[in-house]
Amino acid sequence: MKNILSITFVALLMASCSTAPEKGYVLTGSFSGEIPLKAYLQLYTEGEMKVLDSSEFSTGEFIFSGEVAEPDFYYLRIGGEKDLLGLFIENSIISIVGHTDSLDHAVVSGSVIQNQYNDYKKPQLTIDVELSELHEKYKQAKTEELKNYFETKYDSVDLLSSKAAKDYVIENNSSVIAPYIIRRELIYGMNLSELEEITNKLSPELIENKYTKQLYSQIKTLRILEPGMVAPEFSQNNTEDKSVKLADFKGKYLLIDFWASWCGPCRKANPTVVEIYNKYWKNNFTILGISMDSDKDKWLEAIETDGLTWTQVSALEGWKNPIAKMYAVNSIPHAILIDPEGKVVKRGIQASELDELLESLLATKKPKRPINIVNQKQNKPLPLNDTIKLDTTD
Description:
Strand order of the largest sheet: 13-12-11-14-15
CATH architecture of the largest domain: 3-Layer(aba) Sandwich
Shape: globular
CATH topology of the largest domain: Glutaredoxin
Structural class: alpha+beta
CATH class of the largest domain: Alpha Beta
Distance between the termini: 84 Å
C-alpha cells in the first residue's frame, strides 16, 4: 500500500510541476525504508559542504524547487552526515525513487545531464568495486610486504580509472560534466602540462562554466610554481601562535610539507620524512610543515607522536588554509622543495624520492669540467688523470 501511495504522490507532484515556471527546477523524491524527519539539499563549495535548503521528509516524500545558473553536482542528505546521494541538477523536472538503505541505487529521472553522468559512471562501477576491495585488503594486511603489494595493485587499477575518465572527457568535450570530471577526479594526479592539455580540449562553449574557470585558475597558479620561479611569500602562525614567514628560511633548501593529523598517507610518510630531516638538517636543509588541520589538539598530538621536530604552522581552517590555495594544493601529502634563493626546485615530491633528490643537491659540488694545469716544461696540458679538482664545498 505504501508503494502505491508513493507512486501516486510522485504522479501528483509531476502533474502539479507541469505548470511550474519555464525557468527553474523541481526535484521530488519518494523513498522507502527508515525515514528521517527532513531531507537536505547540499552543495560542496569553498572546501566544505553547505546546506542550501531543507524539506519535510517524515512521510518518505520531499520536494525542492529553485533555479540554477548552470547544471551542477548537488548532494541530497537523507539521514546522517554521510547518508548522501549525489546528482546533477539542472532547470527541469527531476524525480528520485529509492530506498534509504541503498541510496546509490536510487533511480533519478528527468535530468539529461544526470543521464550523461550515469553513462560515464556505469563502465567504471567494476573498477570502483575492485578499488574498494583492494583498499579493504590493504587495511587488513598484516605485513608490510602485503601492504605494499595491495598498494601497488591499487595504483595500477586506479590508473585504468583515470584513463577511462580522460577518454570520456576527450570524447564528450562539450558536455558540462567534462570539466566537472577533470576538476573532481583527474586534477589530483596531473602536472601542469597534463592539466593544460586536457583543459584546452574542452569545447569553447564551456569557457564560462564554473569548473572550467576553476581549472584555468589552477593552471594560472601552477605556472607561477614551475621550477625556477620565485615561491610566493606567505606567513602563518606556528604551534605557539607566533608568525612564521617563508622569507625566514631564505638561504636554505626548504621542503614545504602539506599534511594533516587526520591524513593516513601523511602519517604513513612521516617516518620517512623524519629520517630525511635527521640525515640532512646539518647540510643547509630544513622543513616547514603546513597543516590542513582544524583541531589544534589533534594537530599538536600528531606532531609529538610522529616526532616532527621542525617548524610547523597552520591556519586551523582545514582545506581553507590560504597557503594551500596559494600553492594549488589539491591533495595531501604534498611537498614542494625551495632552493636557498627562494625559487621552486620541484613540487609534488614523494617522500620516497626525496632522499635521492637531496643527495644530488646537497652533496659536495664538483666543477662541470676538470681544470687542466699547463705543464710549463712541455708546454702542453697534463693528462686528465693528473688534473687538480677545485674544492667547492660550501
